[in-house]
Design goal:
With 376 residues, this protein is α+β, with helices and mostly antiparallel strands. It has two domains: 2-190 and 287-375, no CATH class; 194-282, no CATH class. Helix content is 19%, strand content 39%. It has eight helices and 26 strands. It has helices at residues 33-36, 41-48, 99-107, 129-136, 218-226, 286-301, 317-323, 328-338; strands at residues 2-8, 15-16, 26-31, 53-58, 62-64, 67-69, 73-79, 84-91, 115-122, 145-150, 162-164, 172-179, 184-190, 194-206, 209-213, 216-217, 242-245, 253-255, 257-261, 266-269, 278-283, 310-316, 343-349, 351-355, 362-365, 369-375.
Length: 376
């Protein structure tokens, strides 16, 4: 595996960390939405990697090595020497926003033989990540791993962009299939958030749209808890996500609010919030988040046979808001576990995709640190 990385600051060209020539590399380009809106961004990357498979995604912060950047673009180009990749794309508008149907259609484009892992970069403004995952895994997922994340737009929640081999645009969902017997790919996630306040029951919802808790308008209840911070919705909701337990015995999923509808008095979350599920507010601290990142890295590397050569990190914008000036500490904790020889790239997101530890089925998470580790 050969890897080249680069950073692009506003009004400057990409600065490469080395000049190694790569053959048909996978080129992951994660960056600030304003910079990826440039009409020249694709041409600029294509000039550096004429034969590359170029995937773009907007972010809420860029990760490279042990550094977190803002208002920049980070690039990681990977040549797999013993393996192969297949990249496919689709758009939510082509499926009338039926995200599960989109997931099924996207999965149908990937041959299953020797498929080791699917890594997804999805638009993050409107997608129901739970439905997308359900579509991808509709035939049962026992032979390959699934991880990835939802694109971000800092804390603006205006629009997110992604693309494959073209300028970034809205509504795109990109899936990267990794093939090869020598590939070892592991993924994991962990949060570090604590529940507080009364537990309530979801009495009315539809997919990822939440209408009522305990028979009362959910948005009104949420605003009551936020107090003055309700004026800053949906940004302020990142500091107080929801813990959602579908059944009494199921593991809790963390859900972040993507949008609110003042007219309908509803909240749209990044993943499903089924009726009958139990809900509680959550909060966290810097130390809890740092410890969560450390634990996520331990889980990702736990059963590996080979040391990782590449780590793709996707962490949530809510964690970044809590960490503030100490954001890099969670990246440093990950690096301390996976080792200095592992190349690190990634971004801050509106949602993360990974299975719970010890499980095969992938879930949509919020407020977690998610790692996907590669070696061949």
């Amino acid at each position: 595996m050969k890897i080249v990385q680069a950073i692009k600051e506003p009004n400057k060209p990409f600065k490469l960390n080395n000049s190694v020539a790569l053959k048909e590399p996978l080129v992951l380009v994660f960056g600030n939405r304003y910079l990826l809106e440039s009409d020249q961004i694709y041409a600029e990357v294509r000039e550096m990697f004429p034969n590359g498979h170029i995937v773009f995604g907007t972010t809420s912060g860029e990760i490279i090595d042990n550094t977190v950047l803002d208002n920049c673009v980070v690039l990681t180009a990977i040549e797999f020497e013993k393996s192969s990749i297949l990249v496919k794309r689709s758009n939510v508008d082509d499926f009338n926003n039926d995200d599960e149907k989109l997931g099924k259609s996207l999965m149908a484009e990937f041959p299953r033989e020797n498929l080791r892992h699917l890594f997804v970069i999805s638009e993050g403004s409107t997608v129901n990540g739970s439905a997308l995952i359900a579509g991808i895994e509709h035939l049962g997922n026992t032979s390959f791993g699934l991880s990835g994340g939802l694109c971000g737009d800092d804390d603006r929640f205006e629009r997110t962009l992604a693309s494959y081999n073209e300028n970034p645009k809205e509504g795109e969902i990109i899936a990267i299939g990794f093939y090869g017997e020598t590939l070892e790919i592991t993924s994991s996630n962990y949060g570090g958030w604590t529940t507080f306040g009364p537990e309530r029951i979801i009495t009315k919802s539809n997919g990822n749209v939440l209408y009522e808790l305990d028979g009362k308008p959910a948005l009104d209840l949420y605003k009551t808890y936020l107090g003055e911070k309700a004026k800053e919705l949906p940004k302020s909701a990142l500091l107080y996500p929801l813990s959602v337990k579908a059944t009494q015995d199921s593991e809790a999923l963390v859900r972040t609010i993507l949008n609110i509808d003042e007219v309908e008095n509803t909240m749209t979350l990044a993943g499903d919030v089924p009726e009958g599920a139990r809900v509680q507010l959550m909060m966290s601290s810097v130390d809890d988040i740092v410890n969560g990142a450390f634990h996520a890295a331990e889980l990702a590397i736990k059963d590996r046979k080979n040391p990782p050569e590449l780590a793709l990190l996707i962490s949530c914008i809510g964690r970044k808001l809590v960490m503030d000036q100490r954001t890099e500490e969670e990246i440093e904790e990950v690096k301390a576990v996976i080792g200095d020889d592992t190349v690190i790239g990634g971004f801050y997101s509106y949602g993360e995709m990974a299975p719970f530890s010890g499980q095969d089925s992938c879930k949509l998470h919020n407020q977690t640190m998610t790692l996907t580790l590669f070696s061949e």
